[in-house]
Automatic annotation (TrEMBL):
Keyword Nucleus: no
Native source species: Sinorhizobium glycinis
Pfam families: GFA
GO molecular function: carbon-sulfur lyase activity; metal ion binding
Annotated family: Belongs to the Gfa family.
Protein name per UniProt: Aldehyde-activating protein
Keywords: Lyase, Metal-binding, Zinc
Segments forming domain CENP-V/GFA: 9-112
UniProt-listed InterPro entries: CENP-V/GFA, Mss4-like_sf
Length: 144
């Protein structure tokens, strides 16, 4: 089948205790270099994609989720293995799915680097995507 509207993507944590599905209808995707995302992932940046929360469902192991924060603003990890899975954002209306935990390939690709003003000095961006100092809405790309 080729109907993109029906396509669902699966994802899971490292140990497999938590499984989720999300519609392949992400509204945006980016690589975030802010210090919060660097710390929460332990990585140079966080590749994530945003979608309405109603299009994201934890299908297994919800009782294993470890929620850091409040109902409408939190980071969610597997409580057994610690994998970072997603964040509830924008007053709970959206989730930001950490793309690294997806098992299936999404149609969308991260379209820009954001918060490059906070980028780790030891990491070099080597692609040609637009680079924003902070949020996209805060100003034009700094590499164009
Ligand atoms: Zn796990
Ligand atoms: Zn960030």
């Amino acid at each position: 089948m080729t109907d993109q509207n029906l396509r669902m993507l699966a994802g899971r944590c490292l140990c497999g205790a938590v499984h989720y599905v999300v519609a392949d209808e992400f509204r945006y995707a980016a690589n975030c270099h802010c210090t919060d995302c660097r710390r929460v992932t332990g990585a140079a940046f966080k590749p994530f994609a945003g979608i309405e929360r109603t299009k994201f469902t934890v299908t297994g192991g919800a009782d294993h989720l470890h929620i850091f924060g409040e109902e409408n603003a939190h980071d969610a990890r597997c409580g057994k293995c610690g994998s970072f899975l997603y964040s509830a954002v924008r007053d709970g209306a959206y989730v930001h799915v950490a793309l690294g935990a997806l098992a299936d390939e999404p149609t969308i690709r991260p379209g820009e680097h954001i918060f490059v003003g906070s980028k780790a000095p030891w990491f070099a961006i080597t692609d040609d995507l637009p680079q924003y100092w902070a949020h996209v809405a805060d100003g034009p790309p700094i590499n164009r």
